[in-house]
Structure formats: structure tokens, C-alpha cells
Amino acid sequence: MILQTLAFYLFAAVLLASAVMVISARNPVHSVLFLILSFFNAAALFVLIGAEFLAMILVVVYVGAVAVLFLFVVMMLDINLTELRQGFLQYLPIGALVGLVLLLELLVVAGGWSFGPELSAAVQSPIPAIAERSNTAALGDVLYTRYAFLFQGAGIILLIAMIGAIVLTLRHRDIRRQRIGDQIARRPEDAIEIRKVRSGEGV
Q1: pTM for the predicted model, two decimal places
Q2: Which residue among 103, 124, 145 closes a domain?
């Protein structure tokens, strides 16, 4: 029990430190590396509470795909760090306001046990034994029954974010689009020019 407690405090401390470094590091590549470190420590915390499936999903999906994709994108983009630092003070008031709102929401959630003591009984679900129901099956039972609408709502929000990112990316680029009708209606004499080149006059 003492070993598990020490491991929890160790992983939690590293997780908090790496999360702070994600938003405070000046180099974007270092921020992504600290993000990967925070994902690994969060997965270790999931293992400590017996949620091995969530830990593996966190490592495989977020570390193996999302964070590595972020790393490649940041390394391939030509980011002007001086311009980013100049724009930091411009958006500082809005960022501080958003951070204050999030802090107030976290305080309300943290104090929810004192505001409504019945919440503790409302959010607790009966946990079946491991021999009767596996970890993944129990998670699926809760996710696709009690929280099915919230799960679908999260999927819709992610879909809207993906479409918005694609639209914002294509707006500022001169994209050469394929026009099937023009390609089919094109005549051979408009696309090909045949010339007779005499001997010694070629390039």
C-alpha cells in the first residue's frame, strides 16, 4: 500500500510538472515532448487504479498517434517564434479571462460535494467483479448506456472541430482543384500539339 501511494505521488508530481512545462516552454518541440511525458504519467495513474484498458488507449492513441503527429507538424512547419512572442501580450487579457472562468468552474466542481452531498451517490455505479465482467466490457456498459448521448455529443464536437480546421487551412491557400467536366470535354487538339522537327533543329 505504501509503494502504491509513493508511485501515485511520483506520477502525479511528474504529470503536473510536465503539464506546466507544456504551456510554459518556449520551444514548441519541447512542449510536444512534455505533452508525451504527461500522457505516459497519466497512463501510469490509470494502471494504478486498475484501468489498464484506458492506460493502453492513452498510450496507443494519444502518444502513438496524436502527440507524434503534433511533433512532426511542429518540426516541419516554419514557425516564427519571435512573432509568436510578440502576439502573446496582445491576447493576454482574453487568455486571462478564459483561465479565470475555467478556474471558477473547477472550484465549483471541486466544491460540489459540499453544495450537493447527494451527488456522490448519483455518480457511483455498481462495479462488477473482475471475474464476472472484464474492465473493457464494464467501461462499454457505462459509456454506451448511461453516457451514450454525451459520447455522441463529444463525437459531434470533434467532427465540427475537424471540419473547421480543414476550412481554415484551405482558405489561405491557392488550391488547384480538379474539374472532371473540363477534363472530359477537352479535345485532343487542345491538349496536344504536333510539330515536325527537322534534323539539327531540335533542342
Answers
A1: 0.56
A2: 124
